[in-house]
Design goal:
The protein is of the alpha/beta class and 371 residues long. It has helices at 3-11, 15-19, 24-32, 38-45, 53-68, 106-117, 137-147, 163-171, 186-192, 201-205, 207-214, 230-247, 275-288, 302-308, 344-353; strands at 71-81, 87-88, 123-128, 153-157, 176-182, 193-195, 218-223, 252-255, 293-296, 315-317, 357-359. The strands form two sheets. Strands 1-3-4-5-7-8-9-10 form an eight-stranded parallel β-barrel, surrounded by six helices. It has a two-stranded antiparallel ribbon with strand order 2-6. Strand 3 (123-128), helix 7 (137-147) and strand 4 (153-157) form a beta-alpha-beta unit. The two termini are 34 Å apart.
């Protein structure tokens, strides 16, 4: 039993057709309830909910303050390698793109980490391209050992690993996992992932659950919005998060709602996810999953991020570069274009001006883990 079995059942529902069948009574019923069921979630994601965005925002604000106070955690991604064996039509790191690939040495990892830590950040997200040959578990483990000298929390965003491999990384101090399913619609998934191990839909879908079983403190999931119908993708993502939250109450389950951003290639998103649609998604997530973290990335422009931090966001990236070694000079190829280029101090000040509390560190490992 895994979320895959739940997904198969959900696929039998006429989700696209249902979306247009919801009316104001369904939305108002969802807004009146303390704990929402899947039907409520569908109603909040439907066109009928658009006139209720202000009411949804007010309730989302109250729920967020009740569960998280005014705290917003800061972090930044750190790319250590961009070698990839997959051919994905939407990704700049796709193997079909010809550019000079990079992989940091441990000395370079340490230099990059020092530069980031000097900004005050204590939460880091380590990323690689998806290549077991060029970024094996042993390399990720070695990088994590270096990062632990600088950061209280080390999360990873790498190719799906086995349960034993996740346990190995957890034992050396990695405490968080981010795994984007990219797209939950299986036909679209098969079409967009042309070659490579990433074509294995289920291996990716089950990876967050393996992360929970391995003992990671936090697991973040999400769909890359734009690859397929956004209402269906948002619904599946939220159902996946609730599945994990119900079965692994000891793990902090979070959702990130990234929208597609280009760099290399000519991919055009299939689904137009407008700013208003993104707001509706974030609000529906918060009302359906009151205890879940919500992460907002620099894919979104600064002015929009300044507004979205009030709608349920609990974690935000700052001082971001999406190229390998980008924090110490870079020269690599970005995975995607960012929209908000503000530094860590600028994001911190924005949060203060918004009446929020920027948090640089809320986690530490009490026992020393082997490196």
């Amino acid at each position: 039993m895994s979320f895959y079995d739940t997904l198969l059942k959900l696929e039998s529902m006429p989700l696209g057709e249902q979306s247009g069948q919801y009316g104001r009574n369904d939305v108002e019923r969802a807004l009146s309830r303390e704990k929402l069921d899947p039907e409520d979630l569908l109603a909040l994601l439907s066109p009928a909910a658009v006139p209720y965005l202000e009411e949804m925002a007010q309730k989302a604000h109250r729920i967020t303050r009740a569960h998280f106070g005014y705290a917003v955690q800061l972090f930044t991604p750190m790319y250590v390698a961009d070698y990839c064996v997959n051919q994905c039509t939407y990704c700049s790191f796709s193997v079909e793109h010809d550019f000079a690939r990079k992989k940091l040495t441990m000395e370079e990892v340490d230099r990059e980490a020092s530069a980031i830590a000097a900004t005050g950040l204590r939460h880091i997200l380590l990323l690689t391209g998806e290549s077991r040959k060029d970024s094996p578990v042993s390399y990720v483990k070695e990088c994590a050992g270096v990062l632990r000298r600088h950061f209280s929390s080390v999360s990873i965003e790498v190719n799906p690993l086995s349960l034993e491999e996740y346990r190995e990384l957890a034992a050396c101090g990695v405490d968080g996992l981010t795994m984007f399913q990219e797209v939950y619609d299986r036909e679209t998934y098969a079409r967009l992932h042309v070659k490579g191990p990433k074509r294995n839909f289920r291996a990716r879908l089950d990876a967050p659950e393996r992360g929970c079983q391995a003992g990671f403190r936090s697991v973040t999931i999400g769909a890359l919005l734009g690859l397929s119908d956004w209402r269906r993708e948002a619904f599946m993502t939220a159902m996946h998060a609730r599945y994990l939250q119900d079965r692994y109450p000891g793990t902090e389950i979070s959702i990130a709602p990234p929208r597609f951003r280009p760099y290399l290639g000519s991919f055009s998103p299939e689904s137009d996810v407008t700013d208003r649609a993104l707001v509706q998604i974030i609000l529906a997530y918060r009302l359906f999953l009151p205890r879940s973290g919500l992460t907002l990335s620099t894919r979104e422009p600064a002015a929009l991020r300044d507004r979205l931090v009030h709608l349920g966001i609990t974690k935000i990236s700052a001082g971001v570069t999406t190229e390998v070694g980008g924090h110490t000079g870079g020269g690599g190829t970005p995975q995607f274009e960012i929209s908000d280029e503000r530094s860590v101090p600028e994001i911190r000040e924005m949060l203060y001006r918004s009446g929020l509390q920027p948090v640089f560190k809320d986690w530490d490992i009490l026992a020393e883990a082997p490196v």
